[in-house]
Structure formats: C-alpha cells, structure tokens
From TrEMBL:
Protein's name in the database: Lipoprotein
Domain of life per record: Bacteria
Length: 212
C-alpha cells in the first residue's frame, strides 16, 4: 500500500513539472474568477506619450539602419507623408508621397526634387534613399534630445509646423551645436503624427537648422 501511495505522489509531482508556466499570465481575484491576459492588458494600456515615444524611436532606428522598407510601415495609409527640407512647411512645393508611391519608388534610382538649398537657391535633387540617408538623417539623431510637442531648435527661419499640422502631434530630435561654432551648427528632425484607427502614423518629416 505504501508503495502505491508513493508511486501516485511521484506521478503527481512529475505531471505538475511538465507545464510549470501554464497559467503564468493569469490572475485570480478574491472571488476565484480567472482574469485573462486581455483584462491585464487593458489595465496596463500604454499612454499616448509612451506610444509616440516608441514610434519615434522605431522610425529613428529605421533611418539609422537605412531600413527604408521598415520606415514605410509608419507612413499614414490615407494621407501619406510630406518631406520638408527646412522648418517652413510649404504644402505646394514640399515633396509628398502616398504610402504606395513611397514603397514603389524607394528602391529605384528615380530622382525627385525635394526643395531649394538655403543660401544658393539650387534645387536639391536626389533619390528617396539618398534624401533619407544624406539629408533627413544627416546627424546621428539616435543620440538626440527628444521632446514631444515642444520646439528645442529655434533658428532664423519661419517655423509653421503647428499651423500646417494643427491637429497633429510631433516629436523633435534635437542635436545641439558645437562650442566652436557658437552652437549655430545645431540640427533637428521633427516627425509629425496623426492617429488613424487607434494607431499613430507618420504624416510629416521636417528637418530644421540654422539658415542664412
């Protein structure tokens, strides 16, 4: 009889050890009712600020890695994305792509006119790849100071982001200038977002720096 009891105990211990984490994501309340994963998730839903911080980090990393297929995933599915070379957003002249067109042309060597260069007035023409790699990510913005809906970079060009995107949120990735240049060689990258069906998408990419 003792041998039978010992055998049953051993079997029961082994059975418990087979699935030690089976219910690890469940909780039981005071009434003994099981609280599921979805219930837990609803209590720990991320805030708007957290969501924007995360998408900003993901986009910056995609730019740093030159992973422009990944970058395309963040483009607004209906509004597309507009690129502005400087702080002043010009809806009539700034280059804008639908998500489909961005995906279509990004791998190609097609040249686009993105705007005019400060000082010389020359047209800036480049492929999507080169514009993103050489102009948009001209500094290592992965190490920048990040702010939400606040401007850190203030130059001598008109900043009309809030007027053009009145219902949007934006992040600013700011790289301060060097002492050797009295701080005037600062640069920043602003990413403009709007919510669509519960998710934030990119609708604008604005570079800013000291202009002549």
């Amino acid at each position: 009889m003792k041998k039978i009891i010992i055998s049953l105990l051993v079997l029961s211990v082994v059975a418990c050890k087979k699935n030690p984490e089976k219910f690890v994501n469940d909780e039981v309340n005071a009434k003994g009712k099981t609280i599921t994963d979805s219930s837990i998730s609803s209590r720990t839903k991320i805030t708007k600020d957290q969501a924007l911080k995360k998408i900003n980090e993901d986009i910056i990393q995609a730019l740093k890695d030159k992973n422009f297929k990944k970058f395309a995933e963040f483009i607004h599915p209906e509004k597309g994305v507009r690129f502005s070379m400087y702080a002043f957003v010009n809806p009539k002249e700034d280059k804008k792509f639908s998500k489909a067109d961005f995906i279509r042309y990004q791998p190609t060597r097609t040249l686009f006119t993105w705007g005019t260069m400060d000082g010389s007035g020359d047209l800036y023409r480049a492929t999507i790849h080169d514009y993103l790699a050489d102009w948009v990510y001209s500094k290592d913005f992965a190490t920048a100071q990040v702010s939400l809906n606040e401007f850190q970079g203030k130059g001598n060009s008109l900043n009309n982001v809030k007027e053009i995107y009145p219902n949007a949120d934006f992040t600013e990735n700011f790289m301060k200038g060097s002492e050797a240049n009295s701080g005037m060689d600062w640069k920043c990258l602003r990413l403009i977002f709007e919510e669509f069906q519960g998710t934030y998408y990119l609708i604008g990419v604005v570079n800013d720096q000291w202009t002549i």
